[in-house]
Amino acid sequence: MDKDVRAELLALAKPTAEKVARHLVAVGQLIDEDPAEALAHALAARRLAARIAAVREAVGLAAYHAGEWQTAVAELRTYHRMTGLQSHLAVLADCERALGRPERAIDLYRGADRKELDRAVAGELLIVAAGARGDLGQKDAAVAMLQVPELTGEATEPWTVRLRYAYADALLAVGRREEAREWFSRAAEVDTDGATDAAERLLELDGVMIEGDDEDEVEDVAAGPDALGAGSEEPDAEPAAGDAPDAESTGARDGADDTSDDGADDTPDDGAGDPSGLSTQRSGGDSEVPVVGDEAGTGK
């Protein structure tokens, strides 16, 4: 666990601090593989220590991974207010996009003091804001936004890989296919960790069929809509016994914790668009999420 988080937990009674620490460790372990369970652990930690900034950060990031956009916005705003940091602006902006509010994502970009932001945070925020321009149909503006010095620089940080990918995607959206191909190629060359699907997009543009695609299609057609599991999803598995509560008990107390501890200002507007069908992995505008306690910027 991060030393700064451990220092925060010293403000709690030892038994409580130990329970909170276990929940936070579980969040870090589960956030990629089982975000719903990670969120359950984060909410359990919040019930025990709602005034600990690292706990609110954990809830916000777990909610983001789980697609609970409004909860993520409320918790990360609270975290920023408690710490004075602006380390998750890109995640907040991406949540606004998911909620169907691209204008707010652009407002976050405009209002940010980019000189004070970590370069990675500023870069990720730019990528999300460009994606928001695309959401509004301002596709040429999205291309123009991404034409920054870092695009052609030598740096190969994770966010610069995504910058090149986002630029390629934006070019493709305005019909500049050959230029898009060049930038997907540049992104693929430096994407050694496979953070994007630039290589696959490049093959698609070249008309190359990835082996196995046809077989999968035939199997899907043969199975038909009445096949086992078609059109339905498996119900969420119940959390393992222990400190983490089940989804119903955690969800029932979310609003009460937020309202009693930090006030109604943290809660996003009611009636926001239904984000179902949206994903945090939107091409050209995604923000990668840091592990809990990471204040340097966004990076998955």
Could you characterize what this model shows?
- With about 300 residues, this protein is mainly alpha-helical.
- It folds into three domains: about 1-85, no CATH class; about 90-145, no CATH class; about 150-225, no CATH class.
- Helices cover about 60% and strands about 0% of the residues.
- It has helices at about 5-10, 15-30, 35-50, 55-65, 70-85, 90-100, 100-110, 120-135, 140-145, 160-175, 175-190, 200-205, 215-225, 245-260.
- The radius of gyration is 21 Å and the shape is elongated.
- About 45% of the residues are buried.
- The model is unreliable at about 220-300 (pLDDT under 50).
Mean pLDDT: 79
Strand content: under 5%
Q: How do the helices and strands follow one another from N- to C-terminus?
A: HHHHHHHHHHHHHH
Radius of gyration over C-alpha positions, nearest whole angstrom: 21 Å
Regions with little confidence, pLDDT below 50 for 5+ residues: 221-300
Quaternary structure classification: single chain
> Total number of helical segments?
14
| Distance between the first and last residues' Cα | 17 Å
**Total discrete domains:** 3
Fraction in helix:
55-70%
- What does the main sheet amount to? none
Query: How many strand segments?
Result: 0
